[in-house]
Specification:
The chain has three helices and 16 strands. By secondary structure, the protein is mainly β. A hairpin with a 5-residue loop joins strand 14 and strand 15.
Length: 318
């Protein structure tokens, strides 16, 4: 039964995974390897999900694709006892393209998907635009960047014979809405604060309604990110994110290290629900083409009988 299946998922999964619809949590193998502390870094095609202002840092055209299998080894079922039910998997997919900077700014487009097999899915299509503050106010130079996301949200449920007449879905099995995010990035290249990065993002600012029957608004979320890259140790970058959504405060922390002339990346991090680790391999194929492979792993603190969540991503630079 659909409703029973969703209720079971709510009881089993960590709060960050099911707190509300369209929780931007867990996108990108690289950010997740750092525990999700990416708001102040946001320097690749994962940036639209964390801080849209960060895409100004992308110097090549980038296209990336990620697939994640969540809570592997955990067996969940939908359906009823007489049929034995169907096995349910929790999956994420993310595809993103970000352009290199131009005289008109930086642009990006991305699609994020969360699926509970045969039960439920969420899709987010995002258009991203960012520009350095110095393009508008010369005094700000390139230490400041500003960005915005325009997002289309859609969620849908799959019904069976027992839930087809459920009044919750009498107006339909899908709902959609549009909303916006806004982001700021401060990254001074000189002076006393050189090496510091500060990011601030406001997500789902219009609190769009994605309810099937009753009003169900996506809560607005604020994220503050800090990161530091010391001149003496540029290969080691610690980061911290603080978030606030619907009265709940989240803390995400992590560290990233790039070694062997930025060919190998290593990460570790965590938050209140899980610990994480990650690894990357970068290879330049020509002067204008390269690729990067990212793997991110998380192990939850509050879910038993699972081998953790695995995320694999590939990024092409051109």
């Amino acid at each position: 039964i659909l409703i029973i299946g969703l209720t079971v998922l709510t009881l089993l999964l960590p709060r960050s995974a099911v707190f509300a619809a369209f929780l931007d949590d867990g996108w990108g193998a690289r950010p997740i390897g750092m525990g999700g502390a990416f708001t102040a870094i946001a320097d690749d095609s994962n940036a639209p999900m964390y801080n849209p202002a960060g895409i100004v840092q992308v110097q090549w055209n980038e296209m990336s694709a990620m697939y994640a299998q969540l809570f592997t080894g955990l067996t969940l079922y939908s359906g009823n006892d007489t049929t034995g039910g169907n096995t349910v998997h929790l999956d994420q997919s993310y595809i993103s393209y970000v352009s290199k900077p131009s005289g008109y700014g930086s642009f990006g487009v991305s699609w994020a998907n969360f699926t509970t097999t045969q039960l439920y899915r969420e899709d987010t299509v995002t258009l991203t635009y960012a520009r350095y503050g110095g393009d508008f106010i010369p005094a700000l130079d390139n230490a400041w960047a500003f960005g915005v996301n325009a997002k289309y949200l859609r969620r849908g449920s799959t019904l069976d014979a027992l839930t087809a007449s459920d009044p919750v879905f009498q107006s339909g099995t899908s709902a959609s809405a549009v909303t916006v995010d806004a982001g700021v990035l401060w990254k001074p290249e000189e002076g006393d604060f050189q090496g510091w990065r500060v990011g601030l993002t406001g997500k789902n600012l219009t609190q769009p309604n994605v309810g099937f029957q009753a009003v169900d608004r996506v809560p607005a979320e604020a994220r503050l990110g800090l990161a530091y890259q010391a001149k003496q140790m540029p290969w080691l970058v610690p980061a911290l994110d603080l978030s606030r959504r619907n009265g709940v405060t989240g803390v995400n922390g992590g560290v990233e290290s790039w070694l062997f002339h930025d060919m190998l990346g290593l990460r570790a991090g965590g938050n209140r629900d899980e610990a994480s680790a990650g690894i990357s391999y970068y290879q330049a194929m020509t002067k204008k083409v390269g690729f990067r492979l990212d793997y991110g792993f998380t192990i939850p603190f509050f879910v038993q009988d699972t081998a953790g969540s695995h995320r694999l991503a590939v990024t092409v630079y051109f």
